[in-house]
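thread: overnight batch results

M.L. [08:02]
morning all. the overnight job finished for the chain we discussed friday. pasting input first so we're all looking at the same thing
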Amino acid sequence: MSSVRLTHIELALLRVVRLSDEDHGGLTGSELTADEHEPMTRLCDLGLVEAVGEYGEAPDGEEDERDAGNAAVAYRITGAGVAALRDA
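M.L. [08:03]
and the structure it wrote out:
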């Protein structure tokens, strides 16, 4: 992954995803600012972050929220993302 150059914004966002992942299981899409959507897409495309459904394997009630159309995305860091932070 050392051949990939991350911008300051992408690197900062990757750090936020890691902290959020460790703290509460990922950064939700609603926590992104308008300026962070494009960098997050690139981080996902590079395989440094993965977007997973916030609901699905969750306990009680969250399936109901998903079925009602309230499904959301959570961004979680990947092993490659951790390595990219380490090498930065």
